[in-house]
Specification:
Blueprint (H helix, E strand, L loop, with lengths): L2 H12 L15 E5 L2 E4 L5 E5 L4 E4 L7 H11 L4 E5 L5 H4 L2 H11 L5 E5 L2 H10 L1 H11 L34 E3 L2 E6 L2 E7 L8 E5 L4 E5 L19 H13 L4 E4 L5 E2 L1 H27 L4 H7 L4 H4 L11 H13 L14 H12 L2 H12 L4 H17 L4 H17 L3 H17 L6
Parallel strand pairs: 4-5, 5-6, 6-7, 11-12
Antiparallel strand pairs: 1-2, 2-3, 3-4, 8-9, 9-10, 10-11, 12-13
Length: 443
């Protein structure tokens, strides 16, 4: 058993959690986890399988990691890459394709064929339409690393500023696409590609019967499922759960995820897939029950909870997404954007409402003081209220340094108290924004 398979088994079997950094390791190191099966750990992993006629890759990671991926791959084998299969079209799964194609060209190999679901190319076109927005939200999500190279970066050091770009340049579109399912034969291996929606609408997972293995893409990521990302388009938690159950029905003995550690063992894999699917199904079930009984979204948001034993699993820690955010996507999917509060159907501008509230409170000073008092209790519910108050103060008087100093301090404390990367990123972004407006140098 390889080191990463042993580590995976230890974490799952013994319920051990040693932090996300030991589970998701962007090292570009290659580990062989089966006969002719390897995983290269990167921002998202690259799975490589020797087919007897070359190498089939699942995903290519970010472009910033592509050089290391290629080096690790070529230390393992000189065989040509015959196929690149995108599990889905997120930048961290397709960004390194250009480097794979360049490697093939330099070696005189035939250009690899790129295979994906038919919705991948439309995703790329949407990213081109929303380049600036996606650059901004990724900078915010991965704050404070605002210059993380999700593509070409934000500038040209030593030269004139360059347009901010999200994703690789260019996006490499698939050569072959499918709608529901596709069987790909490469050398001695069969790849049964299955479309399923979950994190995206263009996702596939693959069953490789000769290895009794599944390439699961982002359906398994060793964090709580990314089905609620607050800055991204619709996700599908119930369909995600169905995909996991369809995988389990194959009775795989090797699971190769795009993030986290590979998992070996039929019973162990079945348990993991069932637990993740059940967590998602419970969130949907509880939410729909309340919706069907006439609840507002606010009631759903603050009432639906998962039993704590789910969050104790080392592969379900809410360190990226979190269950609370998934409730938003459940409501949006089944109920639309109206949250049941009629005042928010056609609301006043945020700043106008804030000015009215601040006026009624007697000015910014009392509101900021109350926010500090609430934040100082250390109680999570009080911290939520404190954020509402300082946000209102800053909206009502956008040039008020006292308001922004308080906003920076409170969002900074909120960031420190949060677990998920998404919460930390958004609260950290707000903190730095107000530090600048408050005239503070340490931003």
């Amino acid at each position: 058993m390889s080191d990463i398979l042993a580590k995976s088994a230890h974490y799952i079997d013994d319920g051990v959690y040693e932090g996300a950094g030991l589970i998701n390791r962007p090292t570009t190191e290659l580990s062989e986890v089966g006969d002719g099966v390897a995983i290269i750990e990167a921002f998202s992993h690259v799975v490589a399988l020797k087919s007897g006629d070359g190498v089939v890759l699942f995903d290519t990671s970010l472009d910033a990691f592509a050089g290391g991926v290629v080096k690790s791959l070529r230390r393992w084998t000189d065989e040509p890459v015959t196929h690149v299969c995108y599990t889905h079209g997120h930048a961290d799964h397709v960004g390194g394709t250009g480097a794979i194609l360049c490697d093939a060209c330099e070696r005189g190999h035939t250009r690899p064929q790129v295979v994906a679901h038919e919705n991948v190319s439309p995703r790329f076109r949407r990213y081109e339409l929303t380049n600036g927005y996606n650059f901004t939200i990724n900078a915010r999500q991965f704050a404070p690393a605002t210059e993380l190279k999700m593509g070409g970066g934000s500038g040209n050091e030593g030269g004139p500023p360059q347009p901010r770009r999200f994703g690789p340049d260019p996006w490499v579109d698939p050569d072959t696409t499918f709608r529901d399912a596709m069987t790909l034969r490469a050398g001695d291996l069969t790849f049964q590609l299955n479309h399923a929606i979950g994190e995206t609408d263009d996702h596939l997972w693959a069953w490789i019967p000769e290895h009794k293995a599944i390439c699961s893409g982002d359906f398994v990521t060793w964090v709580f499922p990314n089905a609620g990302n607050p800055q991204k388009v619709q996700r599908y938690p119930l369909e995600w759960a169905k995909a996991l159950r369809d995988m389990a029905a194959k009775e795989p003995e090797l699971l190769l995820p795009a993030h986290g550690l590979p998992i070996e063992g039929k019973a162990r894999i079945a348990s993991v897939l069932d637990t993740i699917a059940t967590a998602l199904e419970l969130l949907v079930q509880q939410s729909l029950e309340m919706m069907n009984n006439g609840a507002r979204f606010d009631e759903v948001l603050h009432s639906v909870k998962l039993p704590s034993h789910f969050m104790d699993k080392p592969y379900l820690k809410p360190v990226y997404d979190e269950p609370e955010f998934i409730l938003h996507n459940i409501w949006r999917l089944y109920g639309g954007w109206y949250d049941g509060n009629p005042s928010r159907l056609k609301p006043a501008p945020d700043a106008a409402l804030a000015q009215e509230m601040i006026s009624l409170a007697g000015g910014v000073g009392p509101v900021v003081a109350r926010a500090h008092t609430l934040a100082g209790t250390g109680v999570e519910a009080d911290m939520r209220l404190a954020c509402h108050l300082v946000e209102s103060a800053a909206l009502a008087e956008p040039d008020n340094r006292e308001a922004h100093a308080a906003r920076a301090e409170i969002y900074g404390a909120r960031r420190q108290a949060e677990l998920s990367l998404m919460s930390k990123g958004i609260f950290g972004w707000a903190e730095r924004e107000s530090r600048l407006k408050a005239g503070e140098n340490d931003v």
